[in-house]
Design brief:
This protein is about 60% helix and about 5% strand. It contains 10 helices and 4 strands; from the N terminus they run ββααββαααααααα.
């Protein structure tokens, strides 16, 4: 699979710093070698969905992951879809259902670009980082990144609906959660 060259991956961050390695991980998800695919899945998941936290690069992996699931020749499409779910929706607890993105991401809207820049600078660029300097905005910035990943996936709701009729039962099973959490939660969010 070719990765769109328009994304400046080196200009984005994931859990371990600059996301320049992401295109290689995305491409490796199409490898004929199962060990290469497993390593790519692990590296990608831990970097763009590290312990439940999404990062600036997270929203940008959504479209390539959708393209991989949309490609019938992609090996382990259910695994790719599992990564997509993690990036887009995370691991919702039962008490977070039904999911309402308007409520869940309310604090994300107060994040300014300067807040995000400050958090990234403290995490990745300062030699002696002062975490307390960004403590008041760090959670909102992380929520902003989660909201961006969710919104990126929401733009692909039609793909989730199409995958409900996929010949691979594992893809169908995983896809079943997508429309419910993306489309229906978007509708619920408009009512509140």
């Amino acid at each position: 699979m070719s990765i769109p060259p328009s994304t400046d991956w080196a200009g984005l961050y994931h859990a371990y710093g600059r996301a320049a390695d992401v295109p290689g991980h995305l491409a490796a998800l199409s490898s004929s070698d199962p060990a290469v695919r497993r390593a790519a899945t692990s590296a990608l998941t831990s970097s763009v969905y590290h312990q439940g936290t999404r990062w600036p690069a997270s929203a940008r992996v959504v479209a390539p992951l959708v393209a991989l699931v949309d490609t019938p020749s992609t090996p382990d499409r259910d695994t790719v879809l599992h990564v997509l779910h993690a990036v887009a929706i995370g691991n919702l607890r039962d008490d977070e259902l039904p999911f309402n993105p308007t409520r869940a991401f309310a604090d994300a809207d107060r994040v300014r670009p300067a807040d995000e820049d400050a958090v990234l600078r403290v995490l990745f660029e300062e030699e002696d980082p002062d975490i307390d300097a960004v403590a008041d905005v760090a959670d909102a910035v992380a929520l902003h990144w989660a909201a961006e990943a969710y919104r990126a996936a929401e733009r692909h709701t039609a793909s989730f609906l199409r995958w409900l009729h996929d010949p691979d039962p594992a893809v169908v099973t995983l896809a079943a959660g997508g429309p419910a959490l993306l489309r229906l939660s978007a509708l619920a969010g408009r009512r509140t």
